[in-house]
C-alpha cells in the first residue's frame, strides 16, 4: 500500500506490503537521509517503520469499540546496520511484525528488520487498547504525485534549535501532515526525532561516527507540534567506544510527553 504524501506514512516513504492480524510487513527508505543536527547518515527513520508496523499488528487485534496508542517502543540494531543501509541506497529496510503473546490491556508486537537478505535489527512495540476516541480523523485516500521532501527535517517538520557540546534540541513545527489519526504527532515521527537528538548529543560527527545500537521510548502523553514543542537530549556518557544519551519530547505546555534512552557504539 502506498500512502498519500499528505499523511505521515507517505511523507516518510513507508509502504505496507502485507497486512493481517497474524503478520504485517512494511518498508521504508533510509539511505541518503541525514541527521539535520550532525549532517551524518542516520537510522532514525527505522523508528518510524517500527512504530508503524508494530503498532499496526497490535491495532489489528483490537475489539470493534477499541483504538490503540503506542505506549512503548524498543529498537535494537546490529553493529553493521548503518553501513548496510548506506552501502545500497536503492534497497529499503523491511520490517515484519508478528503478535507476541495474548491480547491484554496492552498488546505486544515483535518486529524483525532486514535489508535485502541481511538482518539489521529487532524491535518491539507495546500498544494500549483504549475506548475508540470520538475524534478519529480519516487520512486522505487520494494519491498525490511526486516524491517526499529530500531532506529528513522537511519530512518530519523539525527545525534545529540547538546543537553542540553534550546537548541537542529540535523544534517540532505544527504540521497536520505529520499528525496521526487522532490529531497528534505520529508516534513514529516523535521516536525518530528522539533518535536524532539523542545521537547528536553524543557528538557532532567528528572522528569515528557513532552507530546507534538501541533506542527505547516511552509514550507518556499526547504530543503536538507548536511554538515551544521540542525534542531535547543530553549525553549521559561519552566514552572512547560507547555512549548513552537521554532524550525527551516537551510540548507547548512544558510537560514531558515522551522519554527515551539511546545507546551507541563506535
Automatic annotation (TrEMBL):
Q: Which InterPro entries match?
A: HotDog_dom_sf, Thioestr_dom
- Pfam families this protein is in? 4HBT
From the UniProt record, list the coiled-coil ranges. Answer: none
- What is this protein's record name? Thioesterase domain-containing protein
CDD domains to which the protein is assigned, alphabetical: PaaI_thioesterase
Give residue ranges for domain Thioesterase: 183-255
Q: Which domain of life is it from?
A: Bacteria
Amino acid at each position: 500500500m502506498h500512502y498519500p504524501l499528505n499523511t505521515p506514512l507517505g511523507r516518510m516513504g513507508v509502504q505496507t506490503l502485507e497486512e493481517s492480524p497474524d503478520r504485517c510487513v512494511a518498508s521504508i527508505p533510509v539511505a541518503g537521509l541525514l541527521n539535520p543536527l550532525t549532517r551524518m547518515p542516520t537510522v532514525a527513520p527505522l523508528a518510524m517503520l517500527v512504530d508503524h508496523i508494530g503498532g499496526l499488528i497490535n491495532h489489528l487485534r483490537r475489539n470493534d469499540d477499541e483504538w490503540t496508542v503506542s505506549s512503548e517502543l524498543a529498537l535494537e540494531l546490529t553493529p553493521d546496520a548503518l553501513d548496510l543501509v548506506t552501502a545500497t541506497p536503492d534497497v529499503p529496510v523491511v520490517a515484519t511484525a508478528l503478535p507476541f503473546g495474548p491480547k491484554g490491556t496492552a498488546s505486544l508486537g515483535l518486529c524483525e528488520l532486514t535489508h535485502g537478505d541481511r538482518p539489521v535489527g529487532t524491535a518491539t512495540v507495546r500498544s494500549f487498547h483504549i475506548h475508540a476516541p470520538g475524534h478519529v480523523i480519516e487520512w486522505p485516500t487520494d494519491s498525490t504525485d511526486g516524491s517526499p521532501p529530500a531532506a529528513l527535517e522537511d519530512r518530519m517538520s523539525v527545525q534545529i534549535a540547538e546543537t553542540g557540546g553534550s546537548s541537542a534540541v529540535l523544534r517540532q513545527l505544527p504540521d497536520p501532515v505529520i499528525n496521526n489519526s487522532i490529531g497528534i504527532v505520529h508516534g513514529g515521527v516523535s521516536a525518530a526525532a528522539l533518535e536524532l537528538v539523542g545521537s547528536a548529543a553524543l557528538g557532532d560527527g567528528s572522528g569515528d561516527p557513532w552507530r546507534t545500537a538501541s533506542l527505547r521510548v516511552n509514550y507518556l502523553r499526547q504530543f503536538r507540534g507548536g511554538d515551544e514543542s521540542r525534542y531535547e537530549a543530553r549525553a549521559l556518557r561519552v566514552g572512547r567506544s560507547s555512549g548513552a544519551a537521554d532524550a525527551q519530547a516537551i510540548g507547548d505546555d512544558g510537560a514531558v510527553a515522551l522519554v527515551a534512552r539511546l545507546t551507541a557504539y563506535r
